Amino acid sequence: MRSVRQCSRTACTEAAVATLTYVYADSTAVLGPLAQRAEPHSYDLCAVHAGRLTAPRGWEVVRLQPEFETPPPSKDDLSALAEAVREAGRGGRGVEAPVVEPRNVTETARRGHLRVLRAESD
């Protein structure tokens, strides 16, 4: 399944469609198509945030594409989604076998999800 990169803007959960890179030497912000990989000094933006991008005073914004649109789901995406739904319906994932403690182990205390166990010698 193809992983979808999210917009870098805080609290935005939309899929990224463009990559923003700053060229500090030229005081330029370059907004282009989504890069193949996420880079540490670039920012992935969704269509809304890419369209509203402005630069600080004295900076120039270079848009390598006039508009950025979220691509429709591909057949691979739909197949992966269908397979995930089938897997969830089978109950194969998320169902864990109960933990059975050995006979010589007893629980002596509990704090939240943590337990203190004591092994008694035979």
Tell me about this structure.
- The chain is elongated.
- The model has no long low-confidence stretch (mean pLDDT 82).
- It has helices spanning 47-51, 75-90; strands at 18-23, 28-33, 42-45, 60-63, 105-111, 114-119.
- The chain has 2 helices and 6 strands.
- The chain has 122 residues and is of the alpha+beta class.
- The strands form 2 sheets. It has a 4-stranded mixed β-sheet. The chain has a two-stranded antiparallel ribbon with strand order 5-6.
- The chain has a domain at 1-79.
Give a topology summary.
Elements (H helix, E strand, L loop, with lengths): L17 E6 L4 E6 L8 E4 L1 H5 L8 E4 L11 H16 L14 E7 L2 E6 L3
Parallel strand pairs: 2-4
Antiparallel strand pairs: 1-2, 1-3, 5-6
The radius of gyration computed from the alpha-carbon positions, rounded to a whole number of angstroms, is: 25 Å
Low-pLDDT sequence parts: none
Number of strands: 6
Strand ordering within the main sheet: 3-1-2-4
The shape is elongated
Span between N and C termini?
51 Å
Look at the helices and sheets and give the structural class: alpha+beta
Q: Quaternary status of these chains?
A: single chain
Element order: H for helix, E for strand: EEEHEHEE
| Total count of helical runs of at least 4 residues | 2
The overall average pLDDT, rounded, is 82
Strand content: 25-35%
Indicate the percent of residues in helices: 10-25%
- Please outline the major beta sheet: 4 strands, mixed
